[in-house]
Every structure is written in structure tokens, then in C-alpha cells.
Amino acid sequence: YLQEGWDTLKHKFDSHPKLVKNVTLFNNVEELKKTVARDLVDKEAHPEIERVAYVRQGNELSEEEIKFVQTRKKKARESFAKFIGVDPSEVHEDDVPVIAITGSGGGMRSNIDTFGYVRGMKKAGLWDCVTYFTGVSGACWGIATYYTVSNGSVDATIDQFKSAYTIHPFSPPFILNLAKLENGLELTFGAVERKRLRNCPTNTTDIYGAVLGAYFFRKDGKLDPKDFKLSLQKRLIENGDHPMPIYVAVRHERPWRDVQEAQEIENGLDEDLDNFDDKEHGSKKAWYQWVEFTPFEIGNDEIAAYIPSWAFGRTFDKGQSVDKVPEQNFGLELGYMTNAQSAPTQRYVHLVDRGLPANWIGKEIRQASTKIGERLGAHRVDELESHHPIHTGRDPNPFHLLIGPPYEPGFITADYIRLLDAGMDNNHPWYILTRANRNVDVILTVDGSKETMYDDFFDRMAKQFLSRRGIRFTPLSPSTRPSIPQTLTPELKGKPDAIHEAFKDAYVQVYQCEPVDERGESVIQGRDMRLVYMPNLPCKKYPEFDPINDKICGTSNFVFSENDIDTIVGCAEACWEESLETVRETLRSVWESKKKKRMGGQ
């Protein structure tokens, strides 16, 4: 796949003498296959290849995560006391709330504005109290930057944004410049070549992730190999010095595809599927299964199975790796987490529907669509809407044949794990924070979504989450989220006081997390759990700037000036300042609740 592409490009370069100066790129590509083959067995560069990996079954936290949480709480105790305004002697370690910060989908806009909030939290003293840092889609880029090339510094992360985002990652100058970086091709396209050498399918999603890895992690004209291994991010969290990162992707479970794959299973396994009802199983609706990536483990709570992070990319069979290859390139993993282009048809239909005019034309199109759906039938519509026009990335399924026999068609019978952007299911990573035994007390949700100014957006996300976890978000303020303008209107633009008046009640809302069934009860377990929702909105400090609809904030934009980044970060930090006291009051309330419960109160 790669070789054919490079051969085509080389032919074009050879026919244009002005481009011969870039022949180094092609000479390097010619050597790439040899370099990658040597790298596959390099024990010094990849000590993990001497280890056999095993699947850990059960939804208990890993020993490493348990130790991290304990260590982080000890370090956070004094900072937490200072933040809520009490003497440290009053705060027992067990009463320090487990706090998580979440970033949303929303491309580079969300990536950058999340760190405006983080910078504000750092200045306020809250960042040192946070246990988990997670995000969906674009937010993953900023999180990855913090834990790699920026070495755990908020200011360095923002500076990296300024130095890296001056060129488009998929522009010819950037791609050609990769050959000039020391080990540039090896750390990017070498990851794709490694998959090819192992006969693992590759596609455009792999190329997408490979290029983005170099784009985000290059610094001073260099790439550091350690930034391309997720497992090495543990160096920043082992002593409890930083929050633990959790990256997310989803697997699209489509039951009718299980039927097709079950019929293709070889090696005598068909007899173990005799009791499988093709018709009944194939008629089920599709859903998304969340896969979490941490420096410690990668796994899914539905099948309650996890592998060491350094083992992703290996071939597994019945709970054990059957080969020993280097850890998957983190750039490729980031590609899976953020590949919104691999969305199912339903996502594209939704975007088109949002853009339809409110006049008779839009009405006619919607009515025609409804009639077509009625004619096809609900199940056929589900199949069509769940189709992926652009293929997702594929890696060997680490949970292959883990549970059984008999083997239930689905996740464990698939030869490959196909992952994509978790925003396809929910633009907020609440699902993985409510995994059993994680015991998060307060979720601080930063929302940089394009749709955050739509009145029903939060309600739709909350309803979807309720259906999955059995947890309802009940507002603690007198009313639900207030109605706000969907854009910075001409009547508001440039008028600080008018902007503040229009949005003042929308910068922060607090919700009680309440269980509605056994699923929710198993997560909350009687705790006082809260969600604090903070949408990124226009603010009086930047009265000319609309953080959602401004041209530079387009979801597909990758190029920013230093002033652009200062503006986006500054506006987000100003929004945080509007939320600060509400967050402080919420955390103090949860702390008092935990303290009372520990001391035997009701």
C-alpha cells in the first residue's frame, strides 16, 4: 500500500526537475522497509518484546491505577484544602474527592480551549487536586501533547500549540519535511510499514494517525521516540505528580456483521456456535463499545478485559499474546481516537439535517427522508446508517476468543478490533469515568463542541448517557440550562456588558448524578456524585470573538497564529473564571458529604 503510493509520487518527482531536491524523501522511503524490519527485533529500543502479554479479566482497577489514585490523593490533600479554603488538618486523605476533568470533541478548537480552562485551573490551585484527565476526539490531541512533548507543563503545552500549528499537517511541505527530521519517516510511516510487514490491513486511517503523530510531537525540528509509546506516559504519573490520562475510542458493534463473521470462523469453531440464532442476533440494533487507553492498560468494561498498554498491536489468542512485537505507535492510536472521518452514514445524515433550511425546502427533504425510511423498514435503515463509507483502522483483536467456548459472536470472535472516534457515541467521555470501581466523585466537563450553544445539545448527550449507564443528571440550580444565543449576534458583538448579560447564567451548571436502576447504583454506591458542565462561550474579555463560530474555530482548521491561540486560550480561561466559585462550592460540598459519611453520619 505504502510502496505503491511512494512509487507513484517518485515517478511524478522524477518528471519535474525542480523537485529533484526532495529526492532524499524517496531514498529514505526505499530504506524504510529494512529499518522497520530491524526495529521489530530491537530489544534495546523495545524491551517489551521480551515479554509475553496476558489479558486481565475483571473490571477491578489495575494494581497500578489503584496505587496511582492512593498516591495522588496523598499529594492532593493540602492543595485541595487550600482550594476549598480550610486548614489542611481538617482534610482526611480519604475525603479528598476523586476529580476528573473532561474535554469534548470539536477538533482543534476543543483541543486548544480545553487548555484555557486547564491554565485557569492551574492558576487557581485546582489542577493539583485532579485525579483523571480525559477527553473525546480533538481534546485527545491536547492531552497527548501535555503527557509527551510538553513533559507535563501547561505553559509548555500552549507554547507547543503555537510552534506546531503554523502549517497544515497534510500539506505537501509538511509531509516532505518529515524526511528531513531525524528518524522522521521511521516514527511516522514506519508504524504503517510495521503493520504491513505483519500482514495486518492498513488504510487511510493509519496514514492519518501516523502524520498527526509527527505533527503534534515534533519540537525544535526533532521527534523523540519515547513520545510515540503510550505506556511511557506513566513516567509522569507514577509518583502522583500529574492527573492520570485516559484516552478513548469506540468499537461499533453491529450484530448483523457478527452473523456474517460467525459464518466465516474457521479452525473447527463452528460447532461452538451451533446454538447461535442468526436471525435473532442479526436483528438487534447497533451500539458503541467504549475502549479506554491509559498508560497502564487498554480495555473494555462490557467484556471486562484489559491488556498492558505496551501489548496493543500484538496478536492474541484465548487470553495470551502469540507474538512479541513492539508497542503500537501512539500516533496510530491517536488516529483511531480522532478519526471522525470514519463516521457512519448516520453522522453525515445528522450534519446535513442540522444544515437544512427551516423553509419548505427543508421540510420537503425531511418528509421524503421519512418516507424512504418507512419503506425500507427500521432494521434496514439501521444497517444503512451504521455503514462506514471510510474504513476504520484495524489491529489484531487482543480479546479474540477470550471467553468461551461456546463463543458469543461479537467483540471476542472478531479477528480485528476496529476503532474510531468516540464522539460517534457521545461527545463527552462520561462513560469511562463511570466504570465500576473508578469511584469518581466530581466530573468537570469542559465543552468546546460546535453544538454547545444549541439548547438541546447537553440534554441529548445526557439522555444518551442515561440509556447506557442508568445515571440521570438532575440540575441543582432552579432551572435547567438557560436559553442562550446560538451565535455572537451583531447586537452583542463588541459589547462586553451585553455579552455578559446574555451568557452569565450559562457558563456553569451543576448536576446531581442520580441512579435510576441497578446499573447506576453499581456505579454511584450511595456517594454524593456531581457533574459540573462548563461550555465554552463568548465572554466580555474578548467581545469581538465567538469561540464557536469564528472562522479560526472551524472544526477542520489546523493552522493558527500565536494571536489566534492566545485568543482561544484567553477566552476559555475567562469562561473558567466565571465558573470558579461554583466549582469551589461544589467541591467543598462533596468533601463535606464524604467527611460526614466517613464519620458515621447519614
From TrEMBL:
Catalytic activity as recorded in UniProt: a 1-acyl-sn-glycero-3-phosphocholine + H2O = sn-glycerol 3-phosphocholine + a fatty acid + H(+)
Keywords: Hydrolase, Lipid degradation, Lipid metabolism
Pfam families to which the protein is assigned, alphabetical: PLA2_B
Gene Ontology CC annotations of this record: cytosol
E.C. no: 3.1.1.5
PROSITE patterns: PLA2C
PANTHER family membership: CYTOSOLIC PHOSPHOLIPASE A2, PATATIN FAMILY PROTEIN
Protein name per the record: Lysophospholipase
Record-level Gene Ontology MF annotations: phosphatidylcholine lysophospholipase activity; phospholipase A2 activity
Organism: Paraglomus occultum
GO biological process entries: glycerophospholipid catabolic process
